[in-house]
């Protein structure tokens, strides 16, 4: 767990820099390597396509230019994120390896390979590439961004906070403040996380960065049950970038939470056609199932499996989503197998919660509680985590502790997807006390 002094220093720098009126040039143009849903924006796509075309033209004239190969590879990584097309991963790897072959220990190529590994969910490799990049370019925020993302996913909270702190020291801008926000959120400091995102928004200049900040501000609001504030952030983000897919997904979630099922289904239908990420397909399938449209839900589950196969063929394996999908479909054995496989790859907070739930579904609640406790260890305030922990405690006969956890789930977010089962479980527990 991150030391209190480390967290205080991170917070202090966010607060101090947030009060500075004039700063050096921000890092808003640095590539974002945090694994996030893609932002399918026409402006971003045009800029990316132009960057790719420019690099390709330059390489036709000067094919042995390692810097241009590195730029091309990094642009391909971003294009994969924007389009959810995993075929760009192979193109990115080829370009970045070419750059490294032309100039060994080429810092920008090492950063690009780290970003590619993070995108493929190969976080151990991302950490190794980031470490090499940080040796070559010790004063470059991008290398620390790769490390921050990798350490976060690998569950090394101290190393992640240190990398974020180094980013803030080097270049306090959108990439560093958004990572600081996530680090603070993981430690349960949601007010400070919101402040860090507000600070990032001040530095956001392009529509993509504005949309990125607004989406995560909306997510913080959604996570606390404030649907009006969440919608406000999503709407403001869409004003900056009307085609941003994560913002559209945010709007779909709030529509579902408000009981506007038809609107939510229409939104998810459009989102999954534009960007068929397993996460979006899974959410769409659950909504269809809950609306009584089982056949349509099954078709979406089939698409989840096909998309996961495509991603795996491109080198991106995500047992976490596979475990959650299996759990939703009632396949407890598969949910557990996938969760255990993912825990072996990245023992972080989110995977701990997923593994706890999979163990519970298989009747192994004593083991499940240990992982539920690990999910809560950093202090993250998450309604689903608390619901899962309360359910496990109830199964173990620890009714008072279960009531406390379920009450906490509803207190964190009274509008979460688990609010109804949490309320039902609470009523049952109170009835037998």
UniProtKB/TrEMBL annotation:
Keywords per UniProt: Signal
Does the UniProt entry include the keyword DNA repair?
Answer: no
Signal sequence region:
1-23
> What PROSITE patterns would the database entry show?
TAT
Q: What is this protein called?
A: Tetratricopeptide repeat protein
Lineage at the top is:
Bacteria, Bacillati, Actinomycetota, Actinomycetes, Pseudonocardiales
Q: Which organism is it from?
A: Umezawaea endophytica
- Coiled-coil region: none
Q: Does the record bear Signal in its keywords?
A: yes
Membrane-crossing segments per the record: none
Quote any Pfam family the record assigns: TPR_16
Q: Which Gene3D superfamilies match?
A: Tetratricopeptide repeat domain
Record's InterPro entries? TAT_signal, TPR-like_helical_dom_sf, TPR_rpt
């Amino acid at each position: 767990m991150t030391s209190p002094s480390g967290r205080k220093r991170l917070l202090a720098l966010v607060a101090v820099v947030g009060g500075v009126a004039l700063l050096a040039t921000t890092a808003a143009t640095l590539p974002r390597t945090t694994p996030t849903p893609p932002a399918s924006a026409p402006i971003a796509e045009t800029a990316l396509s132009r960057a790719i075309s420019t690099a390709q033209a330059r390489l036709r004239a000067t094919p042995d230019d390692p810097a241009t190969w590195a730029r091309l590879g990094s642009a391909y990584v971003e294009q994969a994120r924007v389009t959810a097309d995993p075929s760009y991963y192979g193109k990115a790897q080829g370009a970045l390896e070419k750059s490294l072959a032309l100039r060994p220990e080429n810092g920008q190529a090492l950063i690009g390979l780290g970003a590619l590994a993070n995108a493929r969910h190969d976080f151990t490799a991302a950490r190794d590439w980031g470490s090499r990049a940080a040796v070559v370019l010790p004063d470059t925020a991008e290398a620390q961004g790769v490390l921050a993302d990798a350490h976060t996913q690998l569950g090394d909270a101290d190393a992640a906070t240190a990398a974020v702190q180094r980013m803030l020291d080097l270049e306090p801008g959108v990439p560093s403040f958004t990572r600081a926000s996530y680090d603070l959120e993981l430690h349960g400091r949601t007010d400070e996380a919101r402040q860090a995102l507000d600070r990032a928004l001040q530095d956001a200049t392009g529509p993509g960065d504005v949309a990125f900040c607004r989406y995560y501000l909306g997510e913080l609001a959604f996570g606390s049950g404030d649907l009006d504030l969440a919608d406000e952030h999503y709407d403001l983000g869409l004003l900056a970038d009307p085609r941003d897919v994560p913002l559209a997904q945010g709007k779909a979630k709030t529509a579902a939470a408000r009981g506007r099922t038809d609107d939510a289904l229409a939104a998810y239908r459009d989102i999954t056609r534009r960007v068929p990420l397993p996460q979006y397909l899974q959410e769409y399938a659950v909504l269809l199932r809950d609306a009584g449209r089982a056949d349509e839900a099954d078709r979406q589950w089939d698409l989840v499996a096909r998309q996961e196969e495509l991603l795996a063929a491109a080198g991106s394996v995500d047992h976490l989503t596979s475990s959650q999908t299996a759990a939703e479909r009632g396949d407890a054995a598969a949910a557990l197998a996938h969760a255990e496989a993912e825990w072996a790859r990245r023992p972080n907070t989110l995977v701990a919660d997923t593994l706890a739930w999979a163990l519970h579904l298989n009747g192994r609640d004593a083991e499940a509680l240990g992982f539920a406790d690990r999910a809560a260890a950093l202090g993250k305030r998450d309604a689903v985590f608390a619901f899962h922990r309360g359910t496990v405690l109830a199964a173990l006969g620890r009714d008072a502790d279960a009531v406390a956890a379920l009450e906490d789930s509803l207190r964190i977010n009274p509008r979460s997807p688990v609010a109804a089962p949490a309320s039902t479980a609470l009523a049952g527990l109170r009835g037998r006390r």
